[in-house]
Write a structure and sequence with these properties.
Number of strands: 7
Largest sheet: 4 strands, mixed
Radius of gyration: 18 Å
Structural class: alpha/beta
Length: 129
């Protein structure tokens, strides 16, 4: 019987390396979407003060939770924060978002149609109003 070889090891290593390279890119995409949201809101209490365009990791921002493995935004909890303004269409880029709470703020304007494509968003957790 021939000894087993580790031919799949380079493939597995390549996949892990690719994931490590792409995770920051996706995190920056998520950060850009959150900055677009911040730019459309008035935040008199400074709840979003540490949301910084120059920050590499939106996972460290207040009110944002990310998946530990992928470093993608999965939860956005902005309820009861005295925010006002409009939702940014760029929120549709948060394609790993599972939970979003925006209730009890003074948001105006329509809900961007880009949010309809967020297939991971739990319909029971879309607390917008």
């Amino acid at each position: 019987m021939a000894p087993r070889t580790l031919t799949s090891l380079p493939t597995a290593t390549s996949i892990l390396l690719l994931a490590a390279v792409l995770a920051p890119v996706a995190a920056n995409q998520d950060g850009d979407a959150l900055i677009a949201l911040k730019n459309g809101l008035q935040d008199p209490n400074g709840e979003l003060n540490n949301w910084d365009r120059d920050s590499i990791d939106p996972c460290a921002w207040n009110l944002v939770e990310c998946d530990n493995l992928t470093k993608r935004v999965i939860r956005l909890d902005l309820g009861f924060r005295n925010l006002s303004g409009r939702l940014a269409p760029e929120l549709g880029n948060l394609d790993q978002l599972k939970y979003m709470r925006l209730a009890h703020n003074s948001l105006s304007g329509p809900i961007p149609r880009e949010l309809v494509g967020l297939s991971n968003l739990d319909p029971l957790c879309q607390k917008i109003g």
